[in-house]
Every structure is written in structure tokens, then in C-alpha cells.
Design a protein that fits this description.
It comes from Acacia crassicarpa (northern wattle). The chain is mainly α and 285 residues long. It is built from 11 helices and no strands.
Length: 285
């Protein structure tokens, strides 16, 4: 008797309750990472942001492993329309664009930050310190402008992230939504934005994620590393003779935060590229 080929849809069991078989371990792993990010506390501090970026790295690793399964590839290649493929590829490009913006917004202030630190360590003149502070604040102004544009773009893509079905496309779109929301929290944190309307900002994506809070909406969070340095340097420029004792510690904390996030976002970028390549390979074979 000829062997009966297993149905790849049943083997993979993409979160359908109609099958009695257990989901593939990689599907369970993917959902575990996804649910952990969706249910985690708002990224309203440097440490929580770093933790969520690491969580996104784990989610992308899990996504890529899932895409490497032959059963997954069969399901995608056989059942997906060109529209579904385009949606997924467009989404991966959006994530890479947002990721690139986040990297730029972390890198841009670094040079002027070093300039201020150097002036303090060398006990430079007030003029040198003031110039360094002014350069840093100018860089921050440019960063905030770029972030406003990025947040506007994010607002424009939320409707594309609403999940309607329990299938592989929806799973990957959920991952995209969680990634977008974390980047949004990061960008809001960098630009010191808060107090915006939760209803208007999250009306679409909340249908998917139902987050407890988001960083931009938090009125109770403490002062961020960026806020502390911004305020201190503005005060220094106004007062001329302001003490730099506390400023040095704030600058060092901000430097470590930027370095930590920059490393994490760079690693995440590589993983996003790898996942995109995996998707392209499935549909180009």
C-alpha cells in the first residue's frame, strides 16, 4: 500500500483549534515570544527598552526558524496569493526603514555628546563647554524632527497591521505589529514625547495587541536619560556658571544607554534582513 503523505497544514497546525494535533514546537516557541512581548510592561525606561529589543531579537529568530520548515514553505508557496506575499514583503521593508531611523536617532547625538564629555574631563573653557552643549542640543533637535516624521509614517500603516484570520500571514503580521509598537516606544523615549492620546494613537493596533500602556502615554514614568541631559545642558547654556558635577554622571549614563540600544537595534536589523531573505527565498524558488 502506498504511503499516505501528511498534510503540511495539519503538521504545522498554525493555531487552528479545529485540529487535535499539537502545534509544532517552533509555532509554540514563536507564540511564546510574541505573547511575552505583547503582555510585557510598557517600555518606559532604558532597561525595559533594552529588554524589549532583546525580546524582538528572539521573536525574529523564532520567525526565521519557522520559515525554514519545509511544511511552512509548502503552505506559503501553495496557498498564498500575490497580495499576501506583497503585504508581507512590504511589511518587512517598513520594519527595516523604522529600524534604520531608530539607529540614526541613536547615533546622531553621540559625537556632540563626546564633545561635551571631553570639555568636562579636560576642564575646558566655559566657551568650549557651551559650544559642545549647543551642538548637542542642535543634534537633538534634528533627531526629534526625524522622529516626528517616522511616527507619522507609523500612524499611516496601522490599518495594515490588523489581524483578521488565524493563519501564517496573521502570525507574521502580529510579529510586525509588536515590532512596530516597540520601535514607536523607543522613538518616543528618545524624543521625550509623552502625553499623547492613547485612543487616537492606538485605535487600530490595540485591536490586535491590547497593550497595557505605551511609553508615549505614560505620565507617571521617571525622567529619562535624554531628558536629564537635555535639561542640564539647557540650564548650563542659560546660567553659564552651572555646576557640571551631576552632569558628568548623566552624560555617562546616557552614553551607556545609547551604546546598549545601538548594539541591540543593530543586531535586530540583521535579523530582520535575514527573515526578509528567507521570505524571498520561499517565493523565488
Amino acid at each position: 500500500m502506498a504511503a499516505i503523505e501528511p498534510n503540511p497544514k495539519i503538521c504545522l497546525h498554525l493555531r487552528s483549534n479545529s485540529f487535535r494535533t499539537a502545534p509544532h514546537p517552533l509555532v509554540s516557541q514563536f507564540e511564546e515570544h510574541l505573547n511575552r512581548l505583547k503582555s510585557s510592561e510598557s517600555a518606559s525606561s532604558a532597561s525595559s527598552l533594552s529588554h524589549k529589543v532583546c525580546g524582538l531579537q528572539d521573536l525574529q529568530d523564532s520567525s526565521d526558524k519557522l520559515l525554514q520548515l519545509s511544511t511552512t514553505q509548502q503552505v506559503l508557496a501553495q496557498d498564498w496569493s500575490q497580495k499576501c506575499v506583497d503585504e508581507l514583503l512590504d511589511g518587512s521593508l517598513r520594519l527595516l526603514d523604522i529600524c534604520s531611523t531608530a539607529k540614526d536617532c541613536l547615533v546622531q547625538p553621540k559625537e556632540s555628546l563626546y564633545e561635551v564629555q571631553s570639555a568636562i574631563r579636560r576642564r575646558g573653557t566655559e566657551a568650549a563647554l557651551t559650544v559642545g552643549a549647543a551642538n548637542y542640543l542642535a543634534s537633538r533637535k534634528n533627531v526629534k524632527k526625524a522622529i516626528r516624521m517616522a511616527l507619522g509614517n507609523i500612524k499611516g500603516i496601522r490599518n495594515d497591521l490588523i489581524v483578521k484570520e488565524n493563519d501564517m500571514l496573521s502570525m507574521l503580521k502580529e510579529a510586525e505589529a509588536v515590532t512596530v509598537s516597540t520601535f514607536e516606544s523607543l522613538l518616543c523615549f528618545i524624543s521625550n514625547q509623552k502625553g499623547q492620546s492613547k485612543q487616537s494613537r492606538w485605535s487600530a493596533i490595540s485591536k490586535l495587541m491590547q497593550p497595557k500602556r505605551v511609553a508615549c502615554d505614560s505620565q507617571e514614568r521617571g525622567t529619562s536619560e535624554f531628558e536629564k541631559v537635555d535639561a542640564a545642558l539647557k540650564s548650563l547654556i542659560r546660567q553659564k556658571h552651572a555646576s557640571t558635577d551631576n552632569l558628568q554622571g548623566d552624560l555617562e549614563n546616557l552614553e551607556m544607554f545609547i551604546q546598549d540600544l545601538e548594539t541591540g537595534v543593530e543586531c535586530l536589523s540583521r535579523k530582520l534582513i535575514r527573515t526578509r531573505v528567507s521570505i524571498l527565498n520561499i517565493f523565488n524558488d
